[in-house]
Amino acid sequence: MLFMATCSFGLEKVVFDELKKLGIWIEHKKDGHVFFSGEIDAMYRANLWLRTADKVFLVLKQTKAIDTFEKLFEAVYELPWPDLLRGESTFPVLVKSKKSKLTSTPACQSIVKKAIVKKLQTVYPETTFPESGEEMVIQCWLENDELIVAINTSGEGLHRRGYRQNALHTETPMRENLAAALVNLSGWEKEMPLYDPFCGTGTILLEAAMIAYNIAPGLGRFFAFEKWKMCDTDEWEKVRKVALESRDETTKVTLIGSDQSHEQISLSLENIQTLDIPPIKLFDQDIRKVSLEGVGFKPTSTIEKGMIVTNPPYGIKSDAKDIEEIYQALARRYHAWKGISWHIFTAYENIEKVFGQEAKKRRKLYNGGIKCYLYSF
Ligand SMILES: C[S@@+](CC[C@H](N)C(=O)[O-])C[C@H]1O[C@@H](n2cnc3c(N)ncnc32)[C@H](O)[C@@H]1O
């Protein structure tokens, strides 16, 4: 079976490496997509364990030269829909088209839907389908007239881990899979003390904790495939059981967070409780007043380095003078606190000027459509 993990631009290599670590066979990658193959358990494990991907799809077809509605209909009709869908299944269709002759996505969606209904009618006597049962979202991509037909096995995005219900009420939540990617790209290892001085709801620290304690990110949520006809419940339960038994809290991990907002710190505490992980040191403090002693951020004797991974405000909702002062406060601490590596994710483009030096690495990533960089100093 062929599967595809989708991700934000710039994270393909990170997702590729995660799949490799899971022992899953990778076919190839392109912008925003990593293709992999295996039996159904590869899909279960990818959904349960991938920290940085958006969704996992089962690829039903990949074919070139789909440049007319007739060809689109035929390509979709050929697929074994009665094996995948029940008579009452709900099957919304989404189409994305890029650089292709078939540009009207509503028209393509209606053709794809028609082809599926026609095929189902060869097995089910209904003339119309109630679509009242479990949902299987059918997603088609057309790019340079090449068609991919796939089904979304994850359901809602993999960033929805289930531990951050309260993020819905906050102003500046960061997606969990982006936070995990920042931790991954920073090169953090669980023996290093990690500090986030703008921790907000604690996403970066919580993702680091889940990595350190080997907690599968998908254990607290539901996946679309669980209700499908093709889901092998016993096999899925086995994969979940292995994940539950993999949790390991024996290593002592030093995670520290601060934020000027008391409310945000309270939300972080709620999230820690939901995940039921060992305590994380949290305090409310404006960065302009934070001292190294206050953080208690001492690089350990075994690992020379400590690390800061953080996502400061960058001006969309804050006043420009405030923003400048925040980055100046960070720069002063960067120069004064020795032996610590800094990884700052921001859209604030003056950061290198304020720090008075070029970043060692600058990685372009998107945060909800906003172009940002992860600056590593
Ligand atoms: C972009 S958000 C970080 C979101 C966070 N990564 C999360 O997962 O929720 C920036 C955070 O910086 C905090 N903040 C703003 N100005 C600050 C300051 N001067 N000192 C410390 N924290 C500040 C805000 O309260 C907000 O939580």
TrEMBL record:
<dbReference type="GO" id="GO:0003723">
    <property type="term" value="F:RNA binding"/>
</dbReference>
<protein>
    <recommendedName>
        <fullName>THUMP domain-containing protein</fullName>
    </recommendedName>
</protein>
<dbReference type="InterPro" id="IPR029063">
    <property type="entry name" value="SAM-dependent_MTases_sf"/>
</dbReference>
<dbReference type="InterPro" id="IPR002052">
    <property type="entry name" value="DNA_methylase_N6_adenine_CS"/>
</dbReference>
<dbReference type="InterPro" id="IPR000241">
    <property type="entry name" value="RlmKL-like_Mtase"/>
</dbReference>
<keyword id="KW-0489">Methyltransferase</keyword>
<keyword id="KW-0808">Transferase</keyword>
<dbReference type="InterPro" id="IPR054170">
    <property type="entry name" value="RlmL_1st"/>
</dbReference>
<dbReference type="InterPro" id="IPR053943">
    <property type="entry name" value="RlmKL-like_Mtase_CS"/>
</dbReference>
<dbReference type="GO" id="GO:0070043">
    <property type="term" value="F:rRNA (guanine-N7-)-methyltransferase activity"/>
</dbReference>
<dbReference type="Pfam" id="PF02926">
    <property type="entry name" value="THUMP"/>
</dbReference>
<feature type="domain" description="THUMP">
    <location>
        <begin position="42"/>
        <end position="153"/>
    </location>
</feature>
<dbReference type="Pfam" id="PF01170">
    <property type="entry name" value="UPF0020"/>
</dbReference>
<keyword id="KW-0694">RNA-binding</keyword>
<dbReference type="GO" id="GO:0008990">
    <property type="term" value="F:rRNA (guanine-N2-)-methyltransferase activity"/>
</dbReference>
<dbReference type="InterPro" id="IPR004114">
    <property type="entry name" value="THUMP_dom"/>
</dbReference>
<dbReference type="Pfam" id="PF22020">
    <property type="entry name" value="RlmL_1st"/>
</dbReference>
